[in-house]
Design goal:
3 domains; five-stranded mixed β-sheet; Immunoglobulin-like
Length: 496
């Protein structure tokens, strides 16, 4: 594995055997398994997958050793099959190149050579222990010392190989290119944040989420390394004319800056897979107007550099909302893990149908003819964000002192806006909370409510109503197929 990752760092920086196999696993597992992984590990789901893959590889290595020791070439066959599986996984990735096939195949060869060497050493020790041969200096070494040395070497090689293979080469070059970029000022700046937008309650999610804390959910096991100097966005499909746009072309456009809250459809009730940022980009509708969508088109299939796709309703990308080809996030170029150099940001839709990172193509098409990555896997086609709310403080299960208890949190109905937020205690009457001024209809709102509570146990629920009068759905539903619903509920232990 270490040999394959290190070789990929030079021969195929954007695609290694480990990331190819991991991507194939992500594509192959049922949607329910993905939902379970996200609910269990959250934004650490990729790290968990990598750990799981390493454990499986270790188990296969142990099996190969046992088989090879018992019968020559049987363990080597296991290693060879695994190497071929890695090559097949590489072939399924959109970043595949002829050079990308070399690392898994050469890694398998290296593994077979190492396997044969180790098995010969073990047999020599067995023979020496049985007194059948005269032990040489290598055979006289203790098996414990050998295993300790092997373990240290394997751990160091694996760690160095994985990190070197995934992050060196193209990723380092792209990071350096990003550091040299100075974003232009917006032709249409974001509106100032109203002074009353934050009620000042400690523990509430910040109104603008820092880049380092912004959630990341995608299918990319390693962050695609896309060079802004060679990046091109193509507009194809049912259009009057194909359009190509370079990164320099995009930065030269009159850019728009807006605060926009985006959410993952996997976000459970009260979850944190949501964030608000100040995005800088060019309105997608202006690019599509240049291409001229043909009659009958109703969807835009956006494609990522790693092959992931999202199907977005054409009318959403061409109406007056601030759907952006974003190049900036909170005053700096997009972080690599959030889509550098360019991504889509669309108010009012869950990310699985809109928020394509590392975007390289917009294909104007029809829902009847094309589907994004998640739709064939059981998710709905259009994915509008549902009105929701969350209690941030006090945290569920944490004791608080009797007296005045301040509840606070956030509520959202992107591209619609929030009218009211209400709380109820122990299923009693609803009490209207103090709603802070929102930045815009496309962002979340903060709220707070002070309640006098005597010692005891309390169940507290929150609900929101949007500016159109639409109430938050009380029915408890899981995220699949089109977003979770229900009232966020916390349990508070009030001490005397």
């Amino acid at each position: 594995m270490a040999a394959g990752e290190l070789l990929a760092g030079f021969a195929s920086p954007t695609l290694s055997p480990l990331t190819a196999v991991g991507g194939a696993v992500i594509d192959a597992v049922p949607p329910g398994v993905k939902d379970w992984a996200i609910s269990l590990f959250g934004t650490a789901d990729k790290a968990a997958l990598l750990v799981g893959m390493v454990l499986v590889i270790a188990a296969l290595a142990a099996l190969a050793g046992v088989l090879e020791r018992r019968r020559r070439f049987t363990g080597a066959a296991v290693v060879g099959i695994f190497g071929l599986a890695g090559a097949v996984a590489v072939l399924t990735r959109s970043q595949v190149t002829p050079m990308a096939l070399m690392p898994p195949l050469l890694a398998a060869v290296a593994a077979v050579v190492l396997l044969r060497f180790l098995v010969r050493r073990l047999r020599a020790w067995d023979d020496a222990a049985a007194g059948e041969t005269t032990p040489d200096p290598m055979a006289a070494s203790s098996r414990r010392s050998f295993l300790q040395a092997l373990g240290i070497t394997a751990a160091a090689s694996a760690a160095g190989g994985v990190l070197g293979g995934i992050w060196r080469g193209a990723s380092m070059a792209v990071s350096e290119a990003r550091a040299r970029i100075t974003l232009p000022g917006p032709a249409s700046p974001a509106a100032p944040i109203p002074p009353a937008a934050e009620p000042g309650v400690a523990g509430v999610s910040p109104l603008v989420t820092p880049n380092r804390d912004f959630y990341r959910i995608d299918t990319a096991l390693s962050v695609p390394a896309v060079n802004p100097g060679t990046w091109v966005l193509k507009v194809t499909g049912m259009v009057a004319r194909d359009v190509q746009l370079s990164y320099a072309d995009l930065l030269a456009k009159p850019l728009t800056e807006r605060h926009i809250t985006i959410a993952c459809v996997s976000n459970g009730v009260g979850g944190d897979l949501i964030g608000n940022a100040r995005w800088l980009g060019w309105p997608v509708r202006e690019l599509l107007a240049q291409a001229g969508p043909q009659p009958g088109a109703d969807m835009v299939l956006s494609r990522s550099a790693d092959g992931w796709t999202a199907g977005t309703p054409l009318d959403v990308l061409t109406d007056t909302r601030d759907a952006l080809l974003a190049v900036g996030m909170n005053g700096e170029p997009l972080p690599l893990e959030h889509g550098f150099p360019v991504r889509l940001v669309v108010p009012g839709l869950y990310g699985y149908v809109s928020a394509t990172k590392w975007v390289t193509e917009l294909k104007v098409t029809r829902f009847a003819d094309d589907a994004g990555y998640w739709t064939p896997r059981g998710w709905s086609e259009r994915g509008p964000v549902k009105t929701s709310s969350r209690i941030d403080v006090p945290r569920s299960g944490r004791p608080v002192n009797a007296g005045t208890v301040v509840f606070a949190g956030v509520a959202w109905a992107q591209h619609t806006g929030i009218q009211t937020v209400e709380l109820r205690i122990n299923r009693g009457p609803w009490r209207e909370a103090e709603l802070a001024a929102g930045i815009s209809l496309d962002t979340w709102y903060q709220w707070k409510l002070a309640v006098d509570l005597s010692p005891g146990q309390y169940e507290v629920q929150v609900r929101a109503t949007d500016l159109k009068g639409g109430p938050q759905d009380e029915t408890t539903r899981p995220p699949a197929p089109d977003g979770a619903t229900g009232f966020h509920t916390v349990r508070v232990d009030v001490k005397s």
